[in-house]
M57 family metalloprotease
Amino acid sequence: MKYFATTLLCVMLISCFVCIQSCKKEEKVAATTSADIPAAVLSKIKAQGFSTRDVKKVEGGYVVEGDIFLSTAALAEQPVSPTMRVAQSEQYRTHNVITGLPRVITISVTNLPVGYGAAADVAIARFNALGLQLTFSRVASGGDVNIQYASLGSGVLGRSAGFPTSSGNPPSPILLNADDNALGSNPEQSYLASVITHEIGHTIGFRHTDYFNRGYSCSIGSNEGDGGVGAVPIPGSPTAEDPNSWMLACIGTGVTRLFNANDVSALDYLYGSRMLNPLRDGIYRLVNVNSRKVLDVSEESSNNGAVVHQWEWWNGNNQKWYLTYQGEGYYKLTAYHSGKVLDVIGGSPDNGAVLHQWDWWNIHNQHWRLLRNADGSYGLVNRKSGKVADVKDGSHSNGAVVQQWDWWAANHQRWFIEKL
């Protein structure tokens, strides 16, 4: 596991087996301790909502939380966001974000092996596939963000240039260590792309998802925040730990980390249409991208607990859903024939929990966010679990149960929502 820097030994519990592996941080732990940093500087770092643990003095500023560079000028800025608090496990952003949307951010790669440019292209494609108002483009040199080589020491993978400036521009450069004692000259492409995607995330204003509990992804450390103004929470992001988020502080060696459903929702909130309710209230049918069958209440039942599955479209009232916006980015989906709503059985947080219909109680397992995809389809994200409506086993058959599952952008998790 890498925390994108210094090698440490840590004990991890994985699938009930205890194993000891080498862990690396996103930036090498400081040779100096936080006690060597002036108290006034630590106070400013804390006031910006960052951890004061293992702060490192570098040229022009300080490195905090392993891979985040804060310039002296950035520390002098006064937070201006009106709603601020220390984030716990939800997605959250910095005070400044990229402005001037729609906007193209150019990325260049210099003084790095050829494979690094290819991995940067993969990282750029991951962002651009989301259909955001903020897009990225590779240029030969002089990009808004330059990814460049730096020999940062054994085990140090890289370091971001920080966060957007007060004028809404991305910082530069991103430093990556291609030495043999770090990433090396030819790391696996998808893994390297995940590292680059993470560092680009910082440049557009995203903090570590597990800032408040670094032990979640790193198996070391604990709470690193204790009040102060903290970070700006993104509405609708989860209130429990968020597995596999692209902005978790640590990543295992060779691991590919794509955007999960909450990552995509957070990116869409900041840089998408800026509309939490992309569809007007009304009657719709939901067509699965994989099977072309529709979301259907079994046997036209009007009973609580009737299973929701997929079926061929025949214009039945049990195949029509009234979408009603509830605020904060969430809808209720009401079966037209029964007046009952789409609900996760027992409010379960687990993969494989079946979707059924139930009386409206206005509880979180009955709230659904529409996760916009580049092809015009949507993922249906449950507010309580953070999981999406998924056709079991990717089936094409009539009667295949619709369950909830972790988002991985599969066709059987995406739905065209068509107005009737």
